[in-house]
Amino acid sequence: MRGKIMNMLRRYDEASAASQSALMLVKELPSNHKAIPVAAWRTLAQSYTNLGRYNDAFQALMQANEVLSQDYGLEHGEI
């Protein structure tokens, strides 16, 4: 959530840091919170895009896609 808000405020470095922190903390959540890592990866990708870090943004989206594919199957692996 913080990453999204920082993106809206155009504070992209802070958005990137917040998303990375969220991704570290998400490992502590119960497994029924599967959408949270996807959202964090997508927010990180948006931050990277806004910073002009397109390769990093692509990699973040690939990570989001990987989580979706693992949790919901390949037919739902689109972001």
Key terms:
79 residues; 4 helices; mainly alpha
In a few lines, what is going on in this structure?
Helix content is 71%, strand content 0%.
Walkthrough of the structure:
The chain has 79 residues and is mostly helical. 71% of the residues lie in helices and 0% in strands. It has four helices and no strands. The chain has helices at 2-8, 12-25, 35-50, 54-72. Helix 1 (2-8) runs antiparallel to helix 2. The model has no long low-confidence stretch (mean pLDDT 86).
Order of helices and strands: HHHH
Distance between the termini: 18 Å
Estimate the strand proportion.
under 5%
Number of separate helices = 4
Fold topology:
Layout: H1 2-8, H2 12-25, H3 35-50, H4 54-72
